[in-house]
Amino acid sequence: MAGLLLAVAFVAGAVALPSIAMADGASADGQTQTAANETAGKNGNAQTVSLTEATAVVTDTSGYHLKATVTNTSDTAWSAGALTLSVNPMFTFNSRTDMQEWAQSESPIPTTSQLGEAAVPALQPGGNATVTIDAGADADALTRMLNWGPKPLLVSYTHDDTTVETHTFLTRSSAGLNNANTPPMQITMVMPLSSGHWTTDGESLESLVTQGTTGTNGDGSSSQSSNGSNGSNTTNNSNNSSTTTSSGTSGTGAAAAAVSTDAAVLDGDHTRFDHTLEQTLTKHPKLQTIADPTYLDALAMPPQTKAIMQPAGFDITAYAAQDNAQRYADAGVTDASWNADAALAHYRSALGDQKAEASAIAWQGKAQWTLKALTEARRQGYTTVVSTHDFESTDTDTVHTGTAIVPTDAGDVTVLVEQRELSNLAKGTATSRKATAETTEAGRLARFVAQSAFYQMEQPYNERNLLVCFDEDADAATVDAFMSAVESATWLESTDLDTLAKASPYTTGDEAKAAVPDDAGLSNTDAAAVANALSALASSRGDITRFRDAILDKSAVSAGSSADGSDSSNGTAQRGARQSSGSRWVGELLAAHDSLALHALAAGGGSDRLAASGTTVLAGAQQLSADVLGGVAITPSEAVTMLSETASMPVTISNDTPYPVTIQVSSITGSPEIVTSRRTTVTVPARSEAQVTFSLRAATSGSATAHITLQDRNGGTFGGAQDTAITCVLKINDKTGFVIIGFAVALGVLGLWRQFNRKKDPDE
Q1: Where does the record place a coiled coil (predicted)?
Q2: Who contacts 466 (Cβ-Cβ below 8 Å, separation ≥6)?
Q3: Which of 48, 60, 253, 589 has the fewest CB atoms within 10 Å, i.e. is most exposed?
Q4: What does residue 292 show for φ and ψ, rounded to 5 degrees?
């Protein structure tokens, strides 16, 4: 039977060759254009025929439904025309090349059976019309399909003696056919649950700087912070959540600090999940999710998930490519903030269950899983990783199970390797720029179903489990459409992550190690973005530590003194409490910054949305440090007018932070005639002001500008400067003036006396 089908296809193809050869030119009865030629059009890149809906899997009862949008891409009006569907019900694709050439309108396959036709109205330039074609289950073209699998489907639009063709696929399932069923091919559909909507909570950041999330007053006493929480508790206001987390209850060290800080400084519109994806996950229980635990922690009702990834989707591959752990530490991101323990701490915080368990699977970032990256992931507790754009061999004859077990110095790592073609289609990428039907989701779904059916037909008795990954920002409608198609495909069997991980691996040992990419493959653009982010974060974190070490008054964090700098006389216990509150506030500033830094260095996987989110959070970290240094500022003052050689210039310094600061104030005029004293030290109490006075001295009348700056105790300038205008008008109103006047009067009197008492010459 198969041989007969091949012979029929060959003969039909040979007969069709002359007409196909004319596809890009003129035919006997008019002009024919392929969709690829018409795609560019005169009005840009508009597609003439775009598929908007199509039956993904055809059964014995489904019939076939197609909806398409026809657009006039020219600058002239088109007369009324027709859209026609035709199929070859007996054809069987022999190779991947055959399928690709058909999708690219390059294959001479005849489609002699008409499936349906619809009228298309006249179209003005730029105008469009949506048409629908419905073929019942008893349509002749469908009943003639005696074997299951992908069939070539031609969509033809004819107007004004011109034909535009789009090539796609119709895939018949085995339902209702008398064919012997082969074992289904296993497939694991995975979706990363992460957010590209992270923003910073400006009010919380400001409150953290001026009040501290602990709600501690400048004198060490406790007060309620602006977000309504007491002590070390912080309330998660993201997505209207009322979840409360407490510092020190989840995980240890950096993980606990991160868990208790995320809710205070991160915000974002995560209603995308609540309103759409939740229903999708419920509808498709076989859909596997790997969730960013910090994302789950931001949701009011976090969903169940099959596994968790590294916190914030931290880019481990870029981390390994940078090969500089100290740079990340300087930026505020240590291994302890993204390792498997930290992931579990966030997950437990999200669920409010300190005994909850979940498998930790590292998600790939912008770079490739090199041996160094795999080793680092394994060292940080990730025994399994997902590979989304490497490890897929290009020289295999057939598809294979997407697992490899790679030995590293830290232990074996199970790599779950996505199947490239199917995953790209699920992520919204066509198999080729020439495959014009795949410019829409309906066209990509038709190709996905056809391609998976062909893979099963290649080696129907080989056990294989293919991994297909959705994009990070896939919407619910896309996920629902692909999952529904998979569930309807009789040749596919959905499995879970555990089944995939335990499947017989495609490669192991030295063979698997040899397949590991040697180069990280991080683009220059991405490498520069990571390097710039690290530099910016190191600078902003350095500003906060500088505030702690050289601006904050030592009494705020030293034992034996209260937070306002006065001596404590209430006992050792109270001194210890006050000491810890000052230290805790600085710790909260750093924890908030580091939480933002972790999200700023998220993997993104190439998603523009996630990249934009990282940029937004990076700006929040920079704003936090700017607010910290800006909490100590010079209060604007009026211009100074000197009426004598000496005067004074008062300068007021404000401190909006909850602890006292000790700094230096510098003043310089840059004028030799009018000068000020250069520097003075001042301690400004918490949430208060203090005034310093600079001495002014003038040698002559004139004007100058005093440039006043703040300096830390090491002499480094910070904060905003102020310029104060100085005008000197010397008046004769002091002892020196009277001496000068007296001397002038004496000279005048002497002159008059000589004038009246001098002897005149005889001839005068």
Answers
A1: none
A2: 185, 186, 187, 188, 399, 401, 402, 419, 422, 452, 455
A3: 253
A4: -70, 115
**How many whole angstroms separate alpha carbon 235 and alpha carbon 162?**
65
Question: What is d(CA 668, CA 690) in angstroms, rounded to the nearest whole number?
Answer: 20
**What residues does 666 pair with on adjacent strands?**
679, 709
Residues paired with 707 in a beta bridge: 668, 723
Q: b/e map of 68-83 (b: 16 or more CB within 10 Å)?
A: bebbbbbeeebeebeb
- Pairing assessment for the beta strands 661-668 and 679-684 based on DSSP bridges: antiparallel
In a shared domain, residues 446 and 595: no
Q: Is residue 738 part of a domain?
A: no
> Among candidates 332, 236, 162, 220, which has minimal Cα distance to 571?
220
Q: What is the pLDDT, as a whole number, of residue 610?
A: 58
Tokens of 78: 């088109």
Token representation of residue 640: 């100074």
Helix (H, G, I), strand (E, B) or coil at 212: coil
pLDDT at 273: 66
SS3 string, 213-268, reads CCCECCCCCECCCCCCCCCCEEECCHHHCCCEEECCCCCCHHHHHHHHHHHHHEEE
d(CA 252, CA 230): 21
* CATH number of the domain that residue 384 is part of: 3.20.20
**pLDDT (average), residues 574-585:** 60
User: pTM for the complete prediction?
Assistant: 0.81
344 within 8 A of 360, measured Cβ to Cβ: yes
Sign of the CA dihedral running 224, 226, 232, 234: positive
Helices (H), 58-103: 96-103
In terms of Cα–Cα distance, which of 97, 106, 100, 113 is closest to 153? 113
Side by side, the strands of the sheet bearing 128-135 are: 49-54, 64-71, 128-135
Same-domain check for residues 614 and 687: no
Q: How far is CA 369 from CA 363, 413, 470, 614, in A?
A: 10, 11, 19, 22
Lowest mean pLDDT among 81-85, 180-184, 322-326, 480-484: 180-184
**109 close to 16: Cβ distance less than 8 angstroms:** yes
User: Cα 343 to the chain's mean position, in Å?
Assistant: 18
Domain assignment of residue 745, yes or no? no
**pLDDT for 186 beyond 50:** yes
| Per-residue pLDDT tens over the stretch 516-551 | 999 999 999 999 999 999 999 999 999 999 999 999
Beta bridge partners of 157: 83, 164
pLDDT tens digits, one per residue of 97-133: 999 999 999 998 999 999 999 999 999 999 999 999 9
CATH assignment at residue 646: 2.60.40.10
pLDDT at residue number 410: 97
Whole-number Å distance between alpha carbons of 1 and 48: 39
Point out the domain boundary residue: 131, 154, 181. Answer: 181
- Residue from 690, 695, 654 nearest 678 by CA: 695
Across 696-707, b (16+ Cβ under 10 Å) vs e yields: bebeeeebbebe
Cα separation, 82 vs 84, in Å, equals 6
**Percent helix, strand, coil in the chain (nearest 5)?**
35, 25, 35
Tally DSSP H helices, then E strands, for the chain: 22, 32
Instruction: Count structural domains, the chain.
Output: 4
In a domain, 756, yes or no: no
Residue 746 backbone phi and psi in degrees, to 5: -60, -45
Question: Apex CA 206: angle with CA 228 and CA 581, to 5°?
Answer: 65
Other C-beta atoms closer than 10 Å to the C-beta of 639 total: 13
Q: Is the pLDDT of residue 243 over 70?
A: no
Question: Which domain covers residue 690, as residue numbers?
Answer: 633-728
Whether residue 280 sits in one domain with residue 217: yes
